[in-house]
Amino acid sequence: MNNKLPAHNNSNDTITLDALIVGAGFGGLYALKNLRDKLGLTVRVIDKAGGVGGTWFWNKYPGALSDTESFSYCYSWDPELLQEWEITTRYLTQPQILKYLNHVADRHDLRRNIDLETALTQARYDEAAAVWDVYTDNGNHFRARYLITALGILSASNSPSIPGIEKFKGIVYHTSDWPDNATLAGKKVGVIGTGSTGVQVITSIAPIVRHLSVFQRSPQYSVPIGNGPVDVTYVKNIKENYSEIWKGIKNSTFAFGFKESKKSVFDVDDVTRQQIFEDAWNYGGGFRFVFETFTDIATNEIANQYAQDFIRKKIAKIVKDPDVARKLTPHDLYAKRPLCDSGYYQTFNRDNVSLVDIKSTPIVQVTETGVKTSDGVEHELDVLIFATGFDAVDGNYKCVDIIGRGGEHIRDHWESGPSSYVSVATSGFPNLFMVLGPNGPFTNIPPTIEVIVDWITELVKHSENEGYTSVEANLDAESNWTIRCQEIAEQTLYSKADSWLFGANIPGKKKTVYFYLKGLASFSEELRFIQENSYQGFSFGTEANATKRTATTQIKQGDMA
Ligand code: FAD
Ligand code: NA7
């Protein structure tokens, strides 16, 4: 996605709202539904995209798919839609998810409150009026009491600058800004990046391109995804048990809809252990492989090695050329986001695919006709694809101006790493609520978004009903939350691996904690505790000159489900 936003125009037209929501993905759409239809607020959503869907609007690259299973990669708040929406495959492709989110927007009449192709450029808090002044790239000025940012944690793309890129005469794509008219058939294509996205795009395009050069910096542990059509019994079972399934999801750690294992790798003998891995490999799913098998793969190095060894042996069996197999084999911790694929390692048995290990022979420059590596080889390309990921979590906050109390910029507030109180609010930025801001749960995302949006809705309702004009996280509550997230992270192996989960993928980015790694159930407990204790950690204000509610409907007790 294009992260560079034009400077805002000043315009005389001011639109006054109760709440402005930025982002029309899973988060922003549900926030609109709740604040408008449950609280009766006047709300508008803006998104720089040309359509709703967020991630699924932008990431249209071949092979794009969610690796959360279909039944849990959706909203649970519309039980009728859960019954009506057809489940045909175990996982959902990008077009299927985009269709679903567009359907939700139509079904709930959300579009009338959404402005597309409208980018937030600056948001400035007016302390006296307790209101946000928000400016957009197309000259709009909104004055809104609440600013809800649903900017996405995997939304600001990472495009590494490689010397000579401007000279390349072929076409350059980033997977997160994929055009509808891209054609790859019969072309010499290069892909930089072998994360979740790279694995998907590589596997998908290998059969159609003339030649595919994969530029790999780090080899990956990946297991089969196990995608395919599902039968009537599978669907019937899900639909008949959906309310139980969702209860299970929201009471679990990773919210993927499977039962997380309570068994240690050390509880079983080696034959049983191998069989459990083999069964998980055959059934498919990255998160299932790590968390449905055993409880300690992500926390204990020896347990982790058992899983590593299993995958390494699979790679050796699958990949025919021993030199390619060697390059594809990881030896570090298995502690990045778990990957799964539709035949990734097999792809390297194809004659038209070559693996370039850019750790041993780094890319030195892009030339007019391809990519040159340090061994002097020039890899000829018509198309170069960046599958280089995202400036995750706070990336979209850093490329706009969000200015809080006393003129403090959020970039400065987050100088030593982005922080929040329960991922929702940050001190010095009253009435700004983030949908999955820094240090929120690392899970299947839609269920977590629901929990967070519901909680923000309750908080706004409380504030409105009590006659407050501002709500703000206290600095000590925020600091304590950061420490808590750090302590939890240190108990896992994730903190020992270099990945976007800890900001390690972006040169110069602070390597710190970006997630609450104790899971959704535990996070929900934290939220419940705060709410039941008079929103402990928040301060409520009654600014004398505050801008008043614009909506005429009052929030009635009991309006909220
Ligand atoms: P997004 O969907 O990212 O939406 C954010 C929106 O904010 C975007 O539309 C963007 O245009 C808009 N925006 C940002 N900045 C501005 C601005 N300044 N002005 C206006 N608009 C702005 N999650 C899972 O749980 N399971 C998966 O299997 C999974 N697969 C994924 C696969 C890919 C390829 C990617 C990229 C992500 C995947 N994710 C997955 C994560 C995914 O991002 C979330 O599941 C979910 O879609 C996030 O929704 P959101 O509303 O929080 O953010
Ligand atoms: P990831 O997981 O961050 O993967 C990005 C890949 O790009 C990874 O292999 C990186 O290598 C590689 N990369 C990044 N920068 C460079 C440079 N400068 N040179 C060479 N290679 C580079 O992003 P994805 O989009 O795959 O996945 C992100 C999430 O989105 C994913 O978990 C899903 O939820 C959807 P590295 O491993 O850092 O050595």
CATH C-level of the largest domain = Alpha Beta
CATH topology of the largest domain: FAD/NAD(P)-binding domain
Characterize the main sheet. 8 strands, mixed
Distance between the termini: 36 Å
Quaternary status of these chains?
single chain
Provide a short characterization of the protein structure:
Strands 1, 2, 5, 6, 7, 8, 19 and 20 form an 8-stranded mixed sheet that branches. This protein has a 5-stranded parallel sheet with strand order 9-18-10-11-14. The protein contains 17 helices and 24 strands. The two termini are 36 Å apart.
Structure description:
The protein is of the alpha/beta class and 561 residues long. The two termini are 36 Å apart. The strands form seven sheets. Strands 1, 2, 5, 6, 7, 8, 19 and 20 form an eight-stranded mixed beta sheet that branches. The chain is built from 17 helices and 24 strands. The protein has two domains: 14-52 and 110-156 and 392-549, FAD/NAD(P)-binding domain (3-Layer(bba) Sandwich), CATH 3.50.50; 165-386, no CATH class. A hairpin with a 3-residue loop joins strand 15 and strand 16 (370-373). The longest helix has 21 residues, at 445-465. Bound molecules: flavin-adenine dinucleotide and ligand NA7. Ligand NA7 binds at residues 154, 160, 192-198, 217-218, 337, 358, 387-390, 500, 505.
